[in-house]
Design brief:
By secondary structure, the chain is an alpha/beta fold. It is 27% helix and 18% strand. It contains 19 helices and 25 strands. This is Survival protein SurE-like phosphatase/nucleotidase domain-containing protein.
Length: 757
Amino acid sequence: MHILVVNDDGPPSNQSSPYVHSLVHTLQSAGHVVSVVLPHQQRSWIGKAHLIGASVRPTYFRPGTLHEDNGTIHDFPRGDDAEDGDEWLLIDSTPASCVQIGLFHYFQERGPVDVVVSGPNYGRNTTALFALSSGTIGGALEAAHCGKRAIALSYAFSSRNHDPVVIAEASQHSVKLIEYLCENWAEGVDLYNINVPLEPGMSKCKVLYTDMLDNRWTGSCFQAVDAALPDETPQLQEQRLRDQGERLGEKPTAAPGTGPLRRIRFQHKHFQWNPDFTDVWKSVEASGPGNDGRAVREGMTSVTPLKATFMRTPGIQGEIKLSDNDEPAFYSILDSDDSYVQSLMEQALQRRLRKGHCQIISKLSDLPSPSTPLFQYREYERLDFEHAMMNSATSLVNAYIIRKALIRKHYLSNTVTNWVTKHPNSVLRNHFKFAYDFELDYAEFLDEALLEAYELRESLDSNEGKPDSEKEWWILKAGMSDRGQGIRLFNSEDQLREIFEEWEEDSDDESGSENPDTGRPEDQDQDQDRDGDGQGVVTSQLRHFIAQPYIDPPLLLPSSSNRKFHIRTYVLAVGSLKVYVFKEMLALFAAKPYCPPWEDEDEVIDLARHLTNTCFQEGGSTNEGSVRRFWELDHHVPGLSHDWKEKIFDQICAVTGEVFEAAARGMMVHFQTLPNAFELFGVDFLVDNDGVPWLLELNAYPDFGQTGEELKDLVVGRLFEETVEVAVKPFFGMGDSSVKGTSDLRLVADLELGRKA
């Protein structure tokens, strides 16, 4: 997991912050990615406050040896030529501000934060009187308000004898409990408040869900003192408070530290408090009567009765038993031909699973027994579907056996056509160009083939005598090709005939290039937009074709030299059947600026202005500007609203959910879901000049490598991690199987098809 650690005690110090270094070290040793942002000084008893009106400035802390005060603070981060080593951020503000800056201004290259841990606090945070003033809990509350899972952690010490052995036990116990809670997060919980007694053997004692005691002050929190006496510093006040009721002991002995870890270089920044209250006003506008915001907006005085305590989530009680079983929760076989994919899936499992939960093996015979839980992430032709079908409750695979209804172009056309015929108001009607499919073996039989596609013939006939700019243009696609192979533009029957004659000549010149169908299911249903180049099709693919109206004009962006682009959307289908759309989308651009197909016939032939597949471009996705994050495209586009990207994403989600339902319910023979399978699809959309996305095609085993190195972790790495969270962990009982989506995966279809494991 990626864990953000904050506290209210400041950087490591035996005097005021003796526990945070040990916790960070233990989290890192457990295989977690840990980012650290701490207040630069003691900030206890400050709650969930921000210091407004002042710039927030970071300094940079380089930890020293565990339990020794030899860490160093620097005004600027390490340079690229400096020695390696861990480096933390210190912020001259509060724990809540540390959370804000850690979540939104640093560490993005490490991937999204999975949980924020605030602590360990130097002292307990039990009962309402402590909790309501706690900066430690305040940091966790801020994380929860930012949409992150959060844990407040406190060590209830009884002695200042900071025994490294006891602290290490507390850290190991805390990490185990943090991992347990993250894997078993209860519905409705925003944050957990943990208090660990800092006593020898605490890890062997019970861990209980508890209520928070609702208590009150019985007198003043202030004491009258002589005004002539100098003020006591906050650090001395905090030390005096901790001294109350504790037993003084010996000073701790030093423990050896660990070697330096490679960390990222920080960019030095200052921050100005500048909140955006738009969400507040929107929520008031959307709310009904009876709340304080609405009452004040309507000119009334609001009086809101509250309890000065935290409300415990009901229904969670009893003892937490942390397993000491070293057996993995499941075994996995990771076997991808693409090293890009292989490394990212391994990384996703490592980041999202507790150490030891998954054991990687190389073959099925390595399983202790056939029914042992197994996750296969393999190339389609190497997936052992027989094992999956025989062990449907324990064996998970990364592909459905049959999904022609989605990934074959002519099948997809029939899927959409049949669905819209039965559901005339379907969103697919206005987001898919209805196609005419036909079969053709040789160009000489084109006339016969077009008898079935009479609407296409009528369009071509009506084009006769019209200027090119007024003709209806069509795009031809081979039904079983991928990576854009075989795509051509035409507006007459003669042009269409020339295309097929060209392919016949190419086929005659290529001896031994045909790859006959072996008849196996994987050969029939495999569709990978992977290796290969050129714009023709192999002989075995020259049979099924579709012709669709060409989308013109497409949306063009000045920042990308008016080059045509399509959107690559990653879609996760899980079981039978939930469908999720991944929010991080790609924009893939053509090699040359766009011009209408009738303006230059030569440009139509090379298609460089019309095809956006990066495989056609020399250098592919490494070309500058050929692959961009969708959300970083131009904010202002002439003719479209300022929120045009959000609107396109919403439309894509609606279309995606509908097309999967159309296949699952309307083409059940050609799309057969399995309860113990999931699959990632690459779904392509083209946006027209009015901001309407049109569904182009769906690809199984998409070419993740076209994302490139720059966006590798942000897009594909995060996608794989979310896939582990939503598809893998719930199957093996390590997460909520009814998950309704995440901040990165939007649930767009939740169908009950009656197929159970």
